[in-house]
Amino acid sequence: MKKPLALIVDDEPDIRELLEITLNRMDIETCSAEDVAGAKLCLRQKPLDLCLTDMKLPDGNGLELVDFIQTLPVPIPVAVITAHGNMESAILAMKKGAFDFVSKPVDLPALRLLVNNALKFSAARPTKERRSRYTLLGDSLIMQAIRAKIHKLARSQAPVYISGESGSGKELVARLIHQHSSRSDHAFIAINCGAIPHELMESEFFGHRKGSFSGAVSDKKGLFQAAEGGTLFLDEIADLPLSLQVKLLRAIQEKKIRPVGEQQEIPVDIRLLSATHKNLNDMVNDGSFRQDLYYRINVIDLHIPPLRERLSDIPVLTEHILTKLTGADKQNRPALSASASAALHRYHFPGNVRELENILERALALYDGNRIESDDLSLPISRHDPTKSADFDSSPESLQEHLEKIERKAVSIALEENQWSKTAAAEQLGLSFRSLCYRLNKLNMG
Q1: Which parts of 12-66 are beta strand (E)?
Q2: Are 190 and 73 within one domain?
């Protein structure tokens, strides 16, 4: 079996020798270059599997090699070696397509982890696309672009920040990035940061030692350790308190954690993906989210559009959801009438794809016959067709009053349809429980 071949690029002979010895002991063959020109020559002449390059080189820098490698017919994983603390260079390299980075002085265990992860991906390159039980549906141009970007992001270890409204499919996108990455054989750990009490967050994230606080009756691994070798997805990361944001930043930058009650830091190997429906940039400006953490998690930004911006995808989404809910084939599956289909295309979908699924599930319980009619969808009239709303007339009122009237009616309908269960109503509206309670208080409906 052919040994992997790695290119080492550094103008310091001692560093090149250290890296060569380390990789040779891992049964990896190496070739070396001391500058950009020599590295490009090797890249053109040899079937390489991996490139390790210093940032500062006599005739250029490592970013030039990152750019050059992305233009190759089959790009290989490239990792940059940066000066200690120079995170700006590392982040820029990953934005350009670098697989990962390692800081000087080189931590050899961390380097070996990086190399093994890179070679796993490199070995998987010739295979066809992995089959996935997770599917990101839609034939619109914007969804085709997102699927292409997911495959590109899977080739990197760069942190990805997934933005988008509630119910738009952010966790599904995170799972797909993991599924197509070299980490797919390890765990995908997803956590909603808004669901963890603040006083338990540090223990949940980093674990704790027995006796470190009242109630710590045994050692416990945190989320970082549970995701070892795999992917950690932090949903609603905007809900993290500032005190934990500081510790999360250190864990990401140093790739080490310290469990509560532990004296020594523990190295961890995870890829971080994060998401929120809130505007993190606004939160940075008002001081509720750390700017340095924002830049660290937002190396790559992937925005998921709301359903109302890709209405052409509704037919394929509807077909998939009805198949999943009924388990029936196309011939025996209920179809939408023309009026029902038109009603869905007019609707605003504040809850996005998640709300579409709830609407169709409710329609299946209400329809009678072979077709789902528009009345079976039970769409709030004021939200999908304002011109026919009983609340809309020519009497003078401010825009704010009119919008509050529409919002009050939509919330009332959701509560009535869910027997006044706030949890179920929030899910139907595509809101968090906390957001629904806020709106109830604002509208004097609490």
Answers
A1: 29-33, 50-54, 56-57, 60-61
A2: no
Tell me, yes or no, whether 189 and 294 share the same domain.
Answer: yes
Q: Which tokens is 144 given? A: 């085709």
**The dihedral of CA 9, 14, 20, 22: what is its sign?**
negative
Please give the Cα distance from 200 to 196 (Å, whole number): 7
**What integer pLDDT is reported at residue 205 of this predicted model?**
94
Q: What is the pLDDT of residue 395?
A: 43
Which of 278, 303, 328 is the last residue before a domain boundary?
Answer: 303
Is residue 92 in some structural domain? yes
For the chain, how many structural domains are there in total?
3
The ranges of the chain with pLDDT < 70 are 84-85, 122-134, 381-403, 418-419, 430, 446
Domain that holds residue 429: 385-446
Is residue 37 left, alpha or beta, with left meaning phi > 0 and alpha meaning psi from -120 to 50? alpha
Q: Which amino acid is at 431?
A: L
**Which tokens sit at 416?**
């009535």
Q: Do residue 64 and residue 149 come from a single domain? A: no
Residues pairing with 336 in the sheet: 372
Cα–Cα distances (Å) from 430 to 266, 304, 349, 366, 383, in that order, read 39, 15, 9, 21, 14
The number of CA neighbours under 13 Å toward the Cβ of 412 is 12
